[in-house]
Design brief:
The structure holds 2 protein chains of 2 kinds. Helices cover 72% and strands 0% of the residues of chain A. In chain A, helix 3 crosses helix 14, helix 6 crosses helix 9 and helix 11 packs antiparallel against helix 14. Chain A is flat. Chain A has a single domain, classed as Orthogonal Bundle (MetI-like fold), CATH 1.10.3720. Chain A starts with a helix and ends in an 11-residue tail after the last helix. Chain A is mainly alpha-helical. In chain B, strand 1, helix 3 and strand 2 form a beta-alpha-beta unit. The chains are: A mainly alpha, B alpha/beta. At the A-B interface, helix 13 of A face helix 4, helix 12, helix 18, helix 19 and helix 20 of B. Chain A: Belongs to the binding-protein-dependent transport system permease family. Chain A: It is found in: Cell membrane. Chain A: It is a multi-pass membrane protein. Chain A: Keywords: Cell membrane, Membrane, Transmembrane, Transmembrane helix, Transport. Chain A: One of its GO terms (cellular component) is plasma membrane.
Chain lengths: 318, 453
């Protein structure tokens, strides 16, 4: 009797449609939601990367599909002094420019973190070199370094009269290399400075007050308060900066095209020069692929060396 | 002077914008004036090939960006005239000089895209099997207009055959451009043709503080033009007739040794010169003798601020050295028609139409002879008499050298130029980074890579 009553009370629930059931099915939902992202990544990231790696093992030229040649491109590059010069300069360029950018960028960030009149305006101005399209700033530097029309030469020779010959910025190996590094540092500082400034502003003023009460010097406050708390941001910014610098292309290509006599080729410009201008797509891809281990190493280095801290695991600082 | 000199022209025209604007107005005038000027071009009787135009035909044409305004204005006007007369709608796309080679490659490989490409010199030879033969119209034009000039045939015909796969539209050359006053001051009344005297001239110019200068940086046009001159005038060459690499020779070493003596007399900074550098330095009276296309002179002439420099400027052949002929080639504009075109007759008719005197002479004149003609009859064009300083460009397509001389015209020769192999060989010697022998060996190693079959 009682059983019958219960049965009467239960209203027949309408069976959900197959679509509703499908959408309630979690594994399907996961796949469906991820699909657009995976599709985009496959089409715009995995495919070009995979194609680039594939091309590196063929002798494809522009206008002619190639055949699989195994490691032949890499073997040739191993014996190619130009390639090694590009590897050397890429590392040198990245190391020196990153060092310069972080030294000056951090300094600038600390200055901007003080209370200055027109603070926001100043910060906006600081960002300018980074906002200007690279090619435009490259062209500006191209003029600055011009053997005949350089403003620097003009000031030193024609205005101040302290030199009797124009600077030859780009005519010989080392001056050309340093000139490009200077241009890269100039361009990279704002990114570092503004990012670090953001990091600085997250540091609680109470920590400084406590340090002051303990009678710390300015250096001690920087060393024991600012620096450790800035480190997570520093690691991320440095990782990005190294990647951007190592894969830099526009500055070098617009200013020197890798000259004089190939001494300022970076791996990226050499890859483009061989692959597109020279038409040897296979060889150019091989150079580009050869950049990957360096990038992976640089990323891992800055990540682990600078950021091996618990904040990565989401725990509190020690 | 080689492919890609166009970039230099563009930059020059950015710099002297005033001149450019003036030229813009001048272009329309030139267009109006030169109509009817074609009357003086001698024509022989020749039966035009029968090219029944397909019904509903439309054409797409790809060509490099203009170097001066009239190039584009008149090219479009001629195209429009063709469209009006035949009812064939033609769309012309002007693409950047750096991109056209890649776009040609894509079009050839995918079998889609433009019907006609006016590309660079070697390109038809790279895509031979993707192109239709143009022998009928080339032979007709040759017959009608007094025959093709040397580079016209060289770049038009498939290697070792009489089959035309390209239709050269014109070529640009880069002889010596110099300041007459400087030459006089150095004690010369003309640019000497022997290496020895040319060295003396450069030394004297240096002493007079009016130095010469040639690009030794990664300048595709000017750098390769200078390197080619240096090698060819010493009897050296990149590859032999069969395409075997022959750059590492005693002639090359001799040429590089000569460069070692010549280079210290250049204006400072030529190691980092790009294509526009010598134009700028010349316009600023920083360099007094260099090699360049006609554009240099015209940029000066059209800008009132540099008119005086233009009046003092003259052109001379490159020193011929031991070879006895002009050791230079030309940047050739070479037309091709793809097999995938649905309207091949229309395409051929269009190309023929553009090469006929009524259209071609207008274009040649409007461009001030920048693209020197490939057909002999156009020697009579008025443009060559309009300014005696232009005369040297008239025979541009008759130069007996080509990119990758003495070998067949292939993709590899284009790559060697694009990779600056010869330029860097010269630059490494001039800067003292390598001995002539080592530099020649390195150039050989790199060249072999691209000629490896």
């Amino acid at each position: 009797m009682a059983v019958a009553t219960v049965t009467d009370w239960t209203r027949a629930r309408p069976q959900p449609s197959w679509l509703a059931r499908l959408l309630d099915y979690k594994p399907f939902l996961v796949v469906a939601c991820l699909l657009p992202a995976v599709g985009l990544l496959t089409v715009f990231l995995t495919y070009p990367l995979g194609l680039g790696i594939w091309l590196a093992f063929t002798d494809t030229k522009i206008g002619r599909s190639g055949v699989w040649v195994g490691l032949e491109n890499f073997e040739y590059l191993m014996s190619d002094p130009q390639f090694w010069s590009a590897v050397f300069y890429s590392i040198f360029y990245t190391a020196v420019a990153t060092f310069g950018k972080f030294g000056l960028g951090l300094w600038l960030a600390l200055l901007l973190n003080n209370h200055l009149p027109f603070k926001s305006l100043l910060r906006a101005i600081i960002l300018l070199p980074w906002i200007v399209p690279t090619v435009l700033s490259a062209i500006a530097f191209w003029w600055i370094y011009d053997p005949q029309f350089s403003i620097v030469s003009y000031v030193f020779v024609d205005v101040l009269g302290v030199r009797d010959k124009y600077f030859d910025f780009l005519g010989t190996t080392w001056p050309a290399r340093w000139s490009l590094i200077a241009a890269n540092i100039w361009r990279g500082i704002p990114f570092v400075a503004i990012s670090l400034l953001a990091g600085l502003q997250t540091i609680s003023p109470s920590l400084y007050e406590a340090a002051l009460l303990d009678g710390s010097t300015a250096w001690q406050r920087f060393r024991y308060v600012t620096f450790p708390l800035l480190l997570p941001i520093l690691a991320i910014v440095m990782t990005f900066s190294i990647i951007f610098t190592f894969t830099d292309f526009q500055l070098v290509y617009a200013i020197t095209r890798g000259g004089p006599v190939n001494s300022t080729h970076l791996m990226a410009t050499l890859a483009f020069q061989r692959g597109i201008a020279g038409g040897e797509l296979g060889e150019g891809s091989a150079i580009a692929v050869a950049m990957i281990p360096f990038l992976v190493f640089a990323t891992l280095f800055s990540y682990f060396a600078l950021a091996r801290r618990k904040w990565q695991q989401g725990e509190a600082n020690d | 002077m080689d492919a890609w000199t166009i970039k230099e022209e563009i930059v020059v025209y950015i710099i002297t914008r005033r001149g450019s604007i003036k030229l813009g107005a001048g272009a329309a005038a030139a267009l109006a004036l030169s109509n009817g000027a074609s009357a003086q071009i001698p024509k022989a009787d020749a039966a035009a090939p029968k090219l029944p135009i397909e019904s509903g035909a439309t054409l797409r044409v790809l060509r490099p960006a203009r170097f001066v305004e009239p190039d584009e204005v008149i090219f479009r006007a001629n195209t429009e005239k063709f469209a009006k007369e035949t009812g064939v709608n033609v769309r012309v796309d002007f693409v950047g000089w750096e991109d056209i080679r890649q776009q040609t490659a894509v079009s050839a490989n995918t079998g889609a895209g433009p019907d006609i490409v006016l590309g660079w010199a070697e390109d038809p030879h790279v895509y031979t099997d993707k192109l239709i033969e143009l022998s009928d119209i080339a032979e007709y034009l040759g017959k009608k207009y007094g025959g093709w000039m040397f580079l016209g045939e060289k770049y038009g015909k498939r290697a070792k055959s009489n089959n035309w796969i390209g239709l050269p539209f014109g070529g640009s050359t880069g002889p010596i451009a110099y300041r007459q006053s400087a030459l006089k001051e150095a004690g010369f009344d003309k640019v000497p043709s022997s290496h020895e005297d040319f060295l003396k001239l450069c030394q004297a110019l240096k002493k007079a503080n009016k130095p010469a200068g040639f690009a030794l940086g990664n300048a595709v046009g000017d750098g390769n033009g200078f390197a080619n001159w240096l090698l060819w005038s010493h009897g050296a060459y990149l590859v032999d007739e069969d395409g075997k690499v022959a750059i590492n020779s005693k002639e090359t070493v001799a040429a590089l040794k000569y460069l070692k003596e010549l280079y210290p007399n250049f204006v400072a900074g030529t190691m980092s010169w790009g294509d526009p550098s010598n134009n700028r330095a010349f316009a600023a009276s920083e360099v007094w003798l260099t090699a360049n296309g006609v554009s240099l002179y015209f940029a000066l002439k059209n800008d009132p601020a540099t008119k005086a420099i233009a009046d003092d400027t003259n052109h001379a052949p490159l020193p011929s050295g031991v070879i006895g002929k002009q050791p230079q080639s030309a940047l050739v504009l070479n037309a091709m028609v793809f097999k995938h075109s649905k309207f091949q007759n229309a395409a051929k008719a269009y190309l023929t139409y553009m090469m006929e005197a009524e259209q071609y002479d207008t274009w040649l004149t409007g461009c001030l002879g920048y693209w020197a003609h490939p057909l002999k009859a156009y020697n009579a064009s008025k443009v060559w008499e309009s300014d005696p300083k232009l005369a040297i460009y008239r025979e541009g397509m008759n130069n007996q050298f080509w990119t990758g001389y003495k070998g067949p015209i292939t993709q590899a020769s284009g790559t060697v130029a694009a990779e600056y192999i010869q330029v860097q060989m010269c630059a490494s010697v001039a800067s003292g980074q390598a001995t002539p022998e080592d530099a020649a060996k390195e150039a050989e190693r790199r060249t072999k890579r691209y000629y490896r079959g």
